[in-house]
Structure formats: structure tokens, C-alpha cells
Queue: 2 jobs
Job 1
Amino acid sequence: MPASFEPEALKAQTVAARTYTLSKMERTVEAHPDADVCTDITCCQAYISMENARANWGSQADAYEAKIREAVTATDGEAILYGGVPILAVFHSSSAGLTRAAGQVWQNDLPYLKPVDSPEAKETIPNYYSRVDFTPAALKEKLLAKIPSADLSGDRKSWLKNAVRDSAGSVETVEVGGVTVRGGTVRAALGLRSACFEWELQDGNFVFYVTGYGHGVGLSQYGADAMAESGADYQTILTHYYTGVTVEVFNG
């Protein structure tokens, strides 16, 4: 989350990141059996050293570091709990106005990861709407690398079809060369910013139009900042994005 965001948004992010780590500590991860958490964003959480962060912040380094330290100190020990247990507090950059249920993205639903409205300040979010173009050859190569059983030998218009969208407008499933896959699989194959995408053939190429950034489940960082700007405190933000939870000191 950008350090320029509102203090209450930074507190919400702090508690979410802490809770996510606590939940990881409760189970063994195949990729790193001897560690609770890693810095691979596709596995656990992104991480940047303070030295690199300060270099990125430039003249704002002291002020931004102070903001983050205050967010950590003010929420010391607090976690997001469901039934007294730390939740899998996933988060993303920005949604398409509505977050997604866990089961719409991954294998299983979770009672606290339900779709909720998200007040995205679209005009202030970098690349909130993005466009990506692919030649047919490039698209075929990328899709077959992830979906080798797809048949992309026929009419290009049939390569992707029958998209099923969830309540947030994201692609839940789509047929790729006769194989039904999750929208997230296509997103990963093509490097799209989110699974909220549409496509068309334009001058012989495939053009994808994408909204938002991230998987769309749990806390939206830009949504949290918009709520904070409107006066919401971090507990209100967290209990909005995670359904039926409490925010309290965890002594487990």
C-alpha cells in the first residue's frame, strides 16, 4: 500500500498483513516447510526492505517511515479474527467496484471473504483501466503454455468464448479452445492486471480491456483509502471488507 495513503488505511493494511502472517503460522506451506512465510508474492506476501523503500520515497522518506511506524504501533498486537482465530486476510490493490468471494477465485469459499461494495476512486488509481494487445501467435503461445490441452487451431473467434462472470463482473470461468478454465488462469497466462476483463478481435489482433488490479478478494487497498478519506477508521474498514469478523488483540 502506498505510504501516501490515509493513516487509517495504513492501519487497516497493517492489521491485515499481520493477520495474514499469523494465519500462515498455523500451517505448513509446501513451498517452504521450514519457514512460516516467504517474500514470494504468488505464495505469501510482497516485501521491500526499508532501505529500498526509503530510496523510492526520496524526500518524503522520513515522513512516510514515521506514518508506517505509527500505523504499526497504534495497532500493536491486533488481528482480524473469525471465531477467535486469525483469518486468511488476503488483500489486493483495487477492485471493479465490488470485491469477490474466495470461491470465485480459488477452490473454497470462506465465510468472511464475501463480495462487498468497494468505493474505488477510479480517477486517482494508476492504470485502473488498462488495455493489452496480442497478436494471434503471441496469444496462442501464452495460452497453450498454461492450458496445453486447449485447441486453438480453429476460427480465432472461438478461441475464447462463453465467459461466466461473477457478481463483480470478473470472469469466473471461460472456455479456452474448448477447455473451461478459471478467469484467473487466463489472467495469469496473459499477465493481465485482473480477471475483470473483456476482449475483442481488432484489426486481426486480440485486444483485452481490464478493470482494477489484483485478485479482487478481501481488502481493496484503494477502496480502504477512499473509506478513510470519507472518515472511516481502520476497524470500520476491516469489518467492511471481511464479513463477520472482530478486530482485537490476539493472544494465541
Job 2
Amino acid sequence: MTQMTQFTVAEAAHVLRVPMRVVKKALDNGPARPSTRRGPGPSVRIIDWADLFYLFAVRALRDDLTPKARADFHAALRRAGTGRADEIRFGRFRVAVADLIDELTKRTTELAELHQSVAFANTGEAILAT
């Protein structure tokens, strides 16, 4: 199974198990910044795995991180890249993230499996693949 690396706002909301408006607000407030994917239809905001992980981790750590610490945490995640380290360091802090990575990987794998089980008819309607 190939791991997903980019997510729409709707996909992020599904993985995070929050309403889309919560994801949109988080992206509008930063520090995670989506890119825009243009296609034949309307443009779609896309985030990568690191920003999805940031949104997931910040929800789990919200009582422990100040707004400045959240920004520093995001910067440290971006520096760490997609290696998915067991620990993120910033300033004098070390945040153990292995369990959060495991949970998010499980959720994104479920989303990838859901994607594979859906096909699209010629009309563009989603139907369950058989």
C-alpha cells in the first residue's frame, strides 16, 4: 500500500476527525500553509503529510504548547522533513511523537484504502468499486 503524501481539506478533516471548517480555520491561522492544486474544476487547497501531522499533533498537545511553541514546533517539523522521527526538538524542548505518528499513519492508511474502494462513473459520481 502506498502511503498518501498530500491531502485536501476534506481528506484532512476526515483523518483528523474534525469538521472541514476547523481545518480551514487552522490553515487560515497558520503556521501550516496549504498549496493550491489547479485542475479542470475549481482549485483545491492541499497540505502535505508534515502539515497534516502538525495539525494532528497540535490538537493532542494543545494544552502543553503556547502559540510561540506551536510555531517553533511547526518549524522543527518542517526541518525534520518526511523522515518521521520519533522525537521533535526545538529550543530546549523535546516532544516524543512516535505514538502520534503511528496513529496518524493508521488513519492515513485507512483513507488510502477508502480511496481505492471508490471508483467514479463517467458522470463523475462516486460508486463503490467491486
